[in-house]
Design a protein that fits this description.
The chain has about 100 residues and is mainly alpha-helical. The chain has helices spanning about 5-30, 40-45, 50-70, 75-95. It is about 85% helix and about 0% strand. The termini are far apart.
């Protein structure tokens, strides 16, 4: 994976994280869903800004690690797996809403 492809993938990962956070907040606020991750469920109880801050920080840290080790084959698979997981999660949200 080239540096350009890695940058695009990490930007997509951040965008998907923002979509996940906003969808989670909207659905939990409307009582249409609940946070399944026990750690983030606890953070969500602290308030939406804490939830967003910690969620963004965690994914930014992951992106930093991915960028730092971008030359390794395992990193390529980790980035792709993360993108697939986020896309699957957002698809699940869409199916559940409809």
């Amino acid at each position: 994976m080239s540096d350009r492809a890695t940058k695009i993938s990490l930007a997509a990962l951040m965008l998907l994280n923002i979509l996940d956070a906003s969808t989670t907040l909207a659905l939990t606020d409307a009582n249409l869903a609940c946070e399944i991750n026990p750690i983030m469920k606890e953070v969500l109880e602290w308030g939406p800004w804490h939830f967003i801050l910690i969620k963004m920080t965690a994914v930014l840290f992951a992106c930093y690690i991915f960028w730092s080790f971008r030359g390794r084959k395992l990193t390529k698979y980790a980035i792709i797996s993360s993108l697939v997981a986020y896309c699957s999660l957002l698809l699940y949200f869409c199916v559940e809403i409809l």
